[in-house]
C-alpha cells in the first residue's frame, strides 16, 4: 500500500470512500467492470483500453475482482511524483511565458487561468498574483509559479 504513504489522511479517506461506494456487499472488493466508475469518481479518466490493461496487470489472483490493495496499485499508476509535477509545471510556465522573459505578467497570468478554466477578472487575477508573488516584484518567475501551484495541488 505504498500509494497511501504519500497522501494526507483526508486524501486517503477519499480514496477509501470512493472504493467503498462501489463495494456494495462490503466484501472489500469491487467487480472489475466497476473499476472505471471508481476511478472516475475520484477525478481520473481512464480509457476502456487502459482499464482492460489495468485488470490484467492488477487483478493478481485472476478473480475478476479488484480488492482494495489492488485498487491502490491502480491509483499509483495514475499519479505523478512531486518531482514530475514540478517538471510539468515548469514546462507549463515556459509555454505561458509568451515574451520569454522568465516572468509572467498579470496579463500572461490571466491567460494561464483562462486556459485552466478559470476566467477571472483583472482584480481577481491581481489578488492571485499578490498571493504567489513572494518577491513582490509584480510578476511571477518560474519558482514562484511552481511553488504556488504545488501548494494548491
UniProtKB/TrEMBL annotation:
A molecular-function term among this protein's GO annotations: calcium ion binding
Bilayer-crossing regions: none
GO CC list: myosin II complex
Gene3D superfamilies according to UniProt: EF-hand
Protein name, as recorded: EF-hand domain-containing protein
The organism of origin for this protein: Patella caerulea (Rayed Mediterranean limpet)
Lineage: Eukaryota, Metazoa, Spiralia, Lophotrochozoa, Mollusca
Domain spans labelled EF-hand: 10-45, 46-81, 84-119, 120-153
Domain of life assignment: Eukaryota
Alphabetically ordered keywords of this record: Calcium, Repeat
CDD domains xrefs: EFh
